[in-house]
Design goal:
The protein has one helix and 15 strands, in the order ββαβββββββββββββ. It is mainly beta. The N terminus is likely disordered.
């Protein structure tokens, strides 16, 4: 069995030229519940939280990336080998999770709960469990920016084991 980790992750955004002024972006000006502004234009924005995810039993690789999806674009992620966190930095999108439930945090209320194939808006986040056949779709006529964080088992290298 794997170990668990609390998946309350925080996305940092920063404008180094702000010199103590509030930063612009989802956490600063979209009315997101739970966002915190710090000096220097740094905004702490919860991605998804209040949930524990099962991690791989051995070593794991954590990957963090930002994706810009063109209008109508799909990002099929196939079957996810480990938990994945999704944060909508700008825009609206649909997640497809098959019959699996994603743990979704709503930016406007700060509330979290389970949802099957939810629609996400700017500032919303989701934690998708390992083994989910996941897809992300931009359902709008504008570019959508998404931050993805995955935790997957690390493949053993040659001569290991």
């Amino acid at each position: 069995p794997g170990t668990g980790i609390s998946m309350t992750a925080i996305w940092l955004s920063c404008d180094p030229d702000a010199q103590g002024q509030p930063a612009s972006g989802a956490g600063a000006d979209a009315g997101d519940a739970g966002s915190t502004q710090l000096p220097g234009g740094v905004v702490l924005q919860p991605m998804a939280g209040d949930q524990t995810a099962v991690l791989p039993p051995d070593t794991a690789t954590i990957a963090l990336g930002r994706v810009a999806l063109a209008p109508g674009a799909d990002l099929p992620l196939s079957v996810v080998a480990g938990p994945i966190m999704i944060f909508v930095e700008a825009g609206d999108l649909d997640l497809t999770t098959g019959a699996a439930e994603a743990w979704v945090r709503r930016a406007t209320t700060g509330r979290s709960g389970d949802a099957v194939s939810p629609a996400l808006a700017t500032g919303d986040g989701a934690l998708v469990p390992a083994g989910t056949d996941l897809g992300v779709r931009n359902r709008t006529s504008s570019v959508v920016t998404v931050v993805l964080c995955t935790i997957v088992p690390t493949e053993p290298g040659p001569g290991s084991g």
